[in-house]
Amino acid sequence: MEFALFFLINVVRVLKYAILVRVLMSWIQTDSHGTIYRFIHESTEPFLGALRKILPSTGMIDLSPLLAFFILDFLEIFLAGTLSA
């Protein structure tokens, strides 16, 4: 049980870092057909796409990464609390 919680916490952390890299890559000119870009996009899009359906449209500003960070932070805190209990 302890290993499973530790594994889930690390999966949440990796997803947070992948979202951060995706946001940073959107600010700079990158090759959208590159292997790293496609991997980051394909690994984060299911989560961010679901959040985009929930959030109201704000024009050109995508707030789904911000909401994703909040959700993933709360999930990480919950899992860490469960692990320490």
In words, what does this structure look like?
This protein has 85 residues and is mainly α. 79% of the residues lie in helices and 0% in strands. It contains three helices and no strands. Helix 1 (2-27) packs antiparallel against helix 3 (64-84) and helix 2 packs across helix 3. The chain starts with a helix and ends with a helix. The mean pLDDT is 92.
Structural class: mainly alpha
Task: Tell me the strand percentage band.
Answer: under 5%
Instruction: Tell me the span between the first and last alpha carbons.
Output: 12 Å
Q: Oligomerization state of this entry? A: single chain
Q: Main sheet?
A: none
- Total beta strands: 0
Q: Average the pLDDT over all residues and give the rounded result.
A: 92
Element-by-element helix/strand order: HHH
Helix residue percentage: over 70%
Number of helices: 3
**Form type:** globular
Low-confidence stretches: none
Cα Rg: 15 Å
